[in-house]
Amino acid sequence: MDLSALEDFQLVARHGGFGKASRASGRSKATLSRRVADLEEALGVRLIERGGQSLALTAAGRGLLSRTEGPMHEVAEALAAARDGMDTPRGLLRVAAPQLFAQVALARLAADFIALYPDVQIEAVAEDRVVDLVEERFDVAIRINPRKDSDLVGRCFAHDRLLLVTPPSIARPSDSDGDPLPVRAVVMSSHRDGDIWKTRDGRAIVPQPVLRLSSLLMVRDAVAVGAGAALLPRSIVGGMLDSGQLVTWGIAGDDVELWVLHTSRRLESPKVRAFVDFMASQYPDGSFIAQA
Question: Is the pLDDT of residue 8 over 70?
Answer without folding.
Answer: yes
